[in-house]
Amino acid sequence: MNSSAKTTTAPASASFAAPQRSPRLAIGLFVVGLIVFPLVAPAFWVYFLAILGINVVAAHGLNITMGYTGLLSLGHAAFMGVGAYTAALAQIHFSIPFWLAIPLAGFMAALVGIGFGLPSLRIRGLYVVIATLAAQFLLMFVFVHWQSVTNGDVGLNIAPAQFLGFQFNTDIRAYYLILFFVIASTVFAINVIKSRVGRAFIAVRERDLTAEVMGVRLVQYKLLAFGLGSFYAGVAGALMVYFNKYVTPEQFSLTVSVFFLSAVIVGGQGAILGGILGAVFMTLVPEIVRLSLLFIGDSFGLNTAAILVPLRETIFGLLIVGFLIFEPRGLAHIWRQAQKAFWNRRKTK
Questions:
Q1: Which of 241, 219, 228 minimizes the C-alpha distance to 156?
Q2: Is the dihedral of CA 103, 88, 108, 236 positive or negative?
Q3: CA distance 251 to 253
Q4: Measured distance CA(90)–CA(104) in Å, rounded
Q5: pLDDT at residue 299 is higher than 90
């Protein structure tokens, strides 16, 4: 483990020692662009980017649990559902404001996630996946059949989030609320991974028994990883409720869990940037494929509507499979290599 760490981190630090300010400037300009975007973009893309922001928050959580700690999970969408229903019920029955309901949703999802993470203390690998899959089905059963609380398949409707009389009742206003949590969750995740906790997560992922011999408390850090990942999922679920103004069980199906699992793998496990790029890829590419097929149909007079859904899913699936074959380390690795090549070329000039 030590030798691989040296080979990956030493060249990066050497290559990027000089241009430290440029990435920060680029990030600052990118954030400014995100702030200005709703003022100039069509309404559809504002809505689309808001959904993307929610997916980024959720992907960060699964990346902490799976990418950094090595604990595979197929119940991430169900933990989002716990947060979503917590936020909705907190408003409906207790009139709790959103700025309290969202962290409450995160903590409730974290408690549930820790509960279902307990089997990981004795089992590993595929067995952990089965345990989280059981969590997915069990929680979905609760969402559907506990009708006195969740209203079953009909779902729950809530009022828009508001702060000091200001209502987040439009897509643009909700977008800025989501953007705040995207930035905050990203910064928090970076700080966690850079801390002693993050180093312990990585040690557990690489060799858990060796980490335990070196003094890492496996029980504590495995449960903390499940708790943090589920907290992010709960916050994302609460943001989804406040954005859509309703919550139903179908929003948190197994397909959604697979979506986030694919996002982390495609983006690059064990990289904060990987969670972001994976969420962007999984959210944006299907829409690009859909628009491309519609354009081809309009250009050649073809009726692509009948074959749009299956063809889009097929193309999207082939893209993921092909991507994993040719670049299994994810989009984050491609970005790092491109960035390294750019700065090396710049230094030679």
A1: 241
A2: negative
A3: 6
A4: 9
A5: no
Helix, strand, coil distribution of the chain in percent, nearest 5: 80, 0, 15
8 Å CB contact between 38 and 213: no
The partner residues of 246 in beta bridges, in order of sequence, read 157
Domain spans of the chain, in order of start: 11-348
- Of residues 316 and 3, more confidently modeled: 316
Q: Which two tokens stand for residue 102?
A: 């969202």
Q: What sections of 95-125 are H helices per DSSP?
A: 98-117
pLDDT tens column, 128-151: 888 889 999 999 999 999 999 999
Unique residue bearing structure tokens 């643009």: 172
In the DSSP assignment, the letter for residue 91 is H
**Assigned architecture for domain 11-348:** Orthogonal Bundle (1.10)
Phi/psi of residue 215, nearest 5 degrees: 105, 0
Structure tokens at 16: 């990027």
Q: Determine the 3-state secondary structure of 207 from DSSP.
A: coil
SS3 state at 270: coil
CB proximity list for 45: less than 8 A, separation 6 or greater: 37
Instruction: Say if residues 320 and 266 touch (Cβ distance below 8 Å).
Output: yes
Supply the pTM of this predicted model: 0.87
Nearest to 58 by CA among 200, 186, 190, 249: 186
CA within 13 Å, CB half, 4: 4
What digits encode the pLDDT tens for the residues 174-184? Answer: 999 999 999 99
Q: For position 245, what pLDDT does the model report?
A: 94
